[in-house]
Amino acid sequence: MLRQYELVERVKEYDPDADEAMLNRAYVYTVQKHGTQTRASGDPYFSHPVEVAGLMTDLKLDQETIATALLHDTVEDTLATIDDIERNFGVDVARLVDGVTKLSKIEQMPENERAAENLRKFLLAMSEDIRVLLVKLGDRLHNMRTLHFIKNPEKRQRIARETMDIYAPLAERIGLYEYMREMQMLAFEQLEPEAYNTITKRLDQIRSEDGGQVDAIALDMKHALAEAGITTEVSGREKHPYSIWRKMAERHVSFEQVTDIMAFRIICEDVADCYRALGVLHTTWQFLPGKFKDYISTPKNNGYRSLHTSLIYGKSMRVEVQIRTREMHRVNEFGFAAHWAYKQGNRPDGQVAWLRDLIEIVDASHDPEELLEHTRLAIYQDRIFAFTPKGALFQLPKGATPVDFAFAVHTDLGAQTVGAKINGRHMPLRTQLNNGDVVEIIKSAQADPQMSWLGFVVTGKARASIRRAVRLKERAEIAEIGKKLFDEIALRVPARIGKKALREALRRLEMEEEEDLYYAIGSAKISDRDVMEALVPGSTAELEDEPDWAKSGKALSIRGLTPGVGFRLAECCHPVPGDRIVGLRKPNEGVEVHTIDCHRLASGIDSDWLDLSWGKRSRGAVGRLRVTLYDRPGTLAEMAGIFAQNHVNVKSLEQIQLDYPFTTYEIDLEVQDVPHLTRILSALRASDSIAQAERV
């Protein structure tokens, strides 16, 4: 553990003007506050914040960050408060400590909610000052170094999984590759102990048998570059066990089949020498096509710059090579933290593009599971590059689609997307983008995000935005149904309902807005009787116990509402426009629409019915048919021809029975209305290839 004077000397080495008195006060304060507390290792608890502060000095961070590292656990684990921190160390340190501190109330939450709420607060604080993230990553790295002292294996696994899913990718996104690699290694050891031990033993065996092969290859490269007049530093190493394990998992190969387990780094004097060195390597050794990446001309979002290539050394050995300048290497290892060195005059704010996306996700996520899912998607690596028609560059995860691209450009553009051109050609929205694609988004002001997009989008921002838009639309449409029901309820009370009565009803029901009441009615969170009683107290005393739906004077129209949002067409009876329909209201759900003769209604289940009508211009629904064909060549094609002649789209076709000489299918068709479905049935029944056709 660093002594007090050693820590201060470290800071003074790179920042002679640092406030030595404040650093000393912070050191003494954390020692006093943590007192006799101990860690799982048996060490004094204050050794942890001191070691985290030491990590921050390695990054050459400013005195406020060092003080924050020393104090980051005092509010959470001692009697100290944020006000105490502000009074003793100033507003900036208090704000940073508060950003790193976990909310005390989340300790009583379920595990997933606690993790999500902690992450939510952390991301919001990080958006204001990136130093919050740097301290948090130092805190997590030191905790991972001492994780093996925790006796509970489940707790070790949970912390390791959280590190692998959240903190290692965050370190990668701000370019702290040293932190990322060490956290991945330590987490991998806990999550996959057998794989870790096996790979580590194999690496030890190779190291003992290769006779210094890594050094020999590095020397060969250095000589080849020196002969070309290029001054370089060349170093080599074996890849980390976790990196090898990932390659084994991705390629579905054994350890022996992973040929590129050696990696070399070449440090050049300037950018021109980097490209010259690349040329020398490619002319001296065979390079692997498709493995070259130029992150100098096109840096990663986190500022990472380097040339990457893979070579075949000797007859069959694959090696990876990174080529960069000394300054690139400094930034690549310390990433965003490199810009926070004390002598940097214009420090960047934390609002880099990916961080703004994370904050949008925090705002849009509905529950803990969504927040954790969307955040993991947003911070994972493996990126591709795509361009707008005007040449603007966007980085996206592998597997991203035009919808992901649209949301990356702007949330409003994603919401208005109706189509896309990729490299000048119209392509489906679910098409996966490739490196270098030029994407043009076709939009419409009348468009809305579709729930079906969740089946193919991969970015956290897109998923969060789609879910939020669908939720808002669902709420609005359920509230519209509730408004119609409210008008019917208001007619049944012995008074004329005006604005005053409605305001009083909202007060009695402890609701803020009229829409809250309409939504509660539409989603069956409140009964009609409760609404009547809130409008006119005592008005339900003499009412009979007949069902609420029976008192309605007319059918409610579902015209203008969106299937799957404000209402849902039941899959047990597949109603289509023209059918006589009723609706079932369920708590916290929209209205489920059934045909009047549906067997589910006859069972008496969910008797809170609404009398519904389709509205004058209702068009389009999925009807289900059961069709029995003669089992002979050409019959299926003839049925498909009948569908085509009647301009119907087949949503699904499933063979449900084979009983020679007959084959029976269940088919879902997109039809306009009952007459359209009836014409299709008539055409099927008239065919000699079809033994039977009926609606189900």
From TrEMBL:
The EC number(s) attached to this protein equal 2.7.6.5
For the ACT domain, which residue ranges apply?
Answer: 624-696
Catalyses which reaction(s): GTP + ATP = guanosine 3'-diphosphate 5'-triphosphate + AMP
All residue ranges annotated as the HD domain in the record: 45-144
Q: Which domain of life is it from?
A: Bacteria
Q: What class of enzyme is it?
A: transferase
Enumerate the spans annotated as TGS domain: 382-443
Q: Where is the signal peptide?
A: none
InterPro entries under this entry?
ACT-like_dom_sf, ACT_dom, Beta-grasp_dom_sf, HD/PDEase_dom, HD_domain, NT_sf, RelA/Spo_fam, RelA/SpoT_AH_RIS
Report the family membership.
Belongs to the relA/spoT family.
What is the documented function of this protein? In eubacteria ppGpp (guanosine 3'-diphosphate 5'-diphosphate) is a mediator of the stringent response that coordinates a variety of cellular activities in response to changes in nutritional abundance.
PANTHER family, per database record:
BIFUNCTIONAL (P)PPGPP SYNTHASE_HYDROLASE SPOT (PTHR21262:SF36), GUANOSINE-3',5'-BIS DIPHOSPHATE 3'-PYROPHOSPHOHYDROLASE (PTHR21262)
Name it: GTP pyrophosphokinase rsh
Q: Which organism is it from?
A: Qipengyuania qiaonensis
Q: What is the lineage of its organism?
A: Bacteria, Pseudomonadati, Pseudomonadota, Alphaproteobacteria, Sphingomonadales
